[in-house]
Write a structure and sequence with these properties.
There is one protein chain. With 455 residues, this protein is an alpha/beta fold. The protein has 3 domains: 50 residues, no CATH class; 132 residues, Rossmann fold (3-Layer(aba) Sandwich), CATH 3.40.50.10860; 165 residues, Rossmann fold. Helix content is 46%, strand content 15%. It is built from 17 helices and 12 strands. Strands 9-8-7-6-10-11-12 form a 7-stranded mixed sheet, with helices on both faces. A 5-stranded mixed sheet has the order 1-2-4-3-5. Strand 6, helix 10 and strand 7 form a beta-alpha-beta unit. The radius of gyration is 21 Å and the shape is globular. The two termini are 32 Å apart. Bound molecules: NADPH dihydro-nicotinamide-adenine-dinucleotide phosphate. The site of NADPH dihydro-nicotinamide-adenine-dinucleotide phosphate has 23 residues, from helix 10.
Length: 455
């Protein structure tokens, strides 16, 4: 799909000029504006209200110093970010990423995507994102705690249960959220639902840990069913071995699929007998180890470890049987070549657990090969949706059962698929769930922005 609408083309040029050196943000905006062309053509009122111009500019961008002392007594300095992108439909909401690759452009792309994703959940949540270039890998618990406390000391000035509610993301799991929550409470002397993904003993929601991975499979299941397919007996390739990957593996397996890979940033496991998930959980969730330790500890004799990206996975045509790909690691992990390899190996569906894991070239390959494509904004929205449910429980000072939360999550994912499907049909692009997700997510926020005037 090409951007031909003159008004949006001109806007994209201005976005590029104003956000130089931020290719991930430009990539995300380009995709959204391209798929919004039929909306711009129908809705002059939204153009007149400046909605398109306003939605690509964050409401507020906060960048701050995060000093902390390492175990040897040396001062370390990281950079912290919080992008409060859009609050038209609710308090800013979005995770905190701790990874050395973090810089302004990554946080802005994630915050921008979050606007549409949160809107799709139907819950009242605006879009935001934050994080730091701090790397928790290889750090002691004490170092992670001192970093988190310093990070929250500044962040606490800008967030709140009715204003901005951060959560986890890459590198920010239960441990980090716990330290941040403790510091917020100490500084503000208030116990509120200011963060989600909290531990179950202090306001966390059952099923939040599982939510993104489970939600991805609920969405994928709907997409498959709508196209006459199902997970049953299918070979599934998953990247990553973190929170999203682990629970996507669990749910896909419950649906009767066989997950044959998991990975980390060093390499991947290919296990044709199906990934031994208990072992992955032990290595990753308990020991914080590397995925290569799987070999030698699993009873599966045919399992192999390879250095490099999972998407080079024996990825020459015919070397493995692959039906469904669920990228669950990081942005731009699947490029055009990898997408071709997925198609050549028989892959007919890709649904994104990670945010923006497919490059624009990869997405073109999906469409050219009639691969069913579930975009991140829709497919991985289960995490933030359940964060929204955690906020509701915190406000009520109640907690719901696992089954209750899981059922609500399942219904939300079914409805997200429906919204994407219906919008894709209404705007003349049936089966293009990427366009459907962008349009459906955009319209709700756009109406709210128009109604609230030029703010
Ligand atoms: P985790 O930190 O738990 O796991 C991330 C996984 O991806 C790890 O296996 C990690 O390997 C791997 N990874 C990270 N960066 C790279 C890289 N540059 N190259 C290859 N592998 C990499 O994060 P999550 O599972 O929470 O997040 C994964 C993705 O899902 C992210 O894109 C995130 O934004 C998205 N997401 C997460 C949600 C959530 O609720 N957690 C909600 C919605 C989206 P290693 O250990 O070697 O770094």
């Amino acid at each position: 799909m090409e951007l031909t609408n003159g008004y949006l083309k001109d806007l994209l040029e201005r976005v590029k000029a104003r956000n130089q050196g931020e290719p991930e943000f430009i990539e995300a905006v380009t995709e959204v504006l391209t798929t919004l062309q039929p909306v711009a053509e129908k809705r002059q009122d939204l153009i007149d209200a400046g909605v398109f111009e306003r939605i690509v500019e964050p409401e507020r961008q906060i960048i701050f110093r995060v000093p902390w002392v390492d175990d040897s007594g040396k001062v370390q300095v990281n950079r912290g970010f919080r992008i409060q992108f859009n609050s038209a439909i609710g308090p800013y909401k979005g995770g905190l990423r701790l990874h050395p690759s973090v810089y302004l452009g990554i946080i802005k792309f994630l915050g921008f995507e979050q606007i549409f994703k949160n809107s799709l959940t139907t819950l009242p949540m605006g879009g935001g994102k934050g994080g730091s270039d701090f790397d928790p890998k290889g750090k002691s618990d004490g170092e992670v705690m001192r970093f988190c406390q310093s990070f929250m000391t500044e962040l606490s000035k800008h967030i709140g249960a009715d204003c901005d509610v951060p959560a986890g993301d890459i590198g920010t799991g239960a441990r980090e959220i716990g330290y941040m929550f403790g510091q917020y409470k100490r500084l503000r002397n208030e116990f509120t639902g200011v963060l989600t993904g909290k531990g179950l003993t202090y306001g966390g929601s059952l099923a939040r840990t599982q939510a993104t991975g489970y939600g991805l499979c609920y969405f994928t299941d709907e997409m498959l069913k709508a196209n006459g397919k199902s997970f049953k007996d299918q070979a599934v390739v998953i990247s990553g071995s973190g929170n999203v990957a682990i629970y996507a593996t669990e749910k896909a397996t419950q649906y009767g699929a066989k997950v044959v890979t998991v990975s980390d940033s060093n390499g991947y496991i290919y296990d044709p007998d199906g990934i031994d998930l208990d072992l992955v959980k032990q290595i990753k969730e308990v020991e914080r180890g590397r995925i290569k330790e799987y070999i030698g500890r699993t009873a599966h004799k045919n399992a192999e470890y390879h250095d490099g990206s999972v998407w080079t996975l024996k990825c020459n045509a015919g070397s493995i049987k692959l039906d469904i790909a669920l990228p669950c690691a990081t942005q731009n992990e699947i490029n055009g070549e990898a997408a071709k390899a997925i198609a050549a190996n028989g892959g007919y569906a890709v649904a994104e657990g990670a945010n923006m894991p497919s490059t624009p070239e990869a997405i073109e390959v999906y469409f050219a090969n009639n691969i069913l494509y579930g975009p991140a904004k829709a497919a991985n929205a289960g995490g933030v949706a359940t964060s929204g449910l955690e906020m509701s429980q915190n406000s009520e000072r109640l907690s719901w059962s696992f089954e209750e939360v899981d059922e609500k999550l399942h219904n939300i994912m079914i409805n997200i698929f429906k919204s994407c499907d219906e919008a894709s049909k209404e705007y003349g692009m049936p089966g293009n769930y990427m366009a459907g997700a962008n349009i459906a997510g955009f319209l709700k926020v756009a109406e709210a922005m128009k109604a609230q005037g030029c703010v």
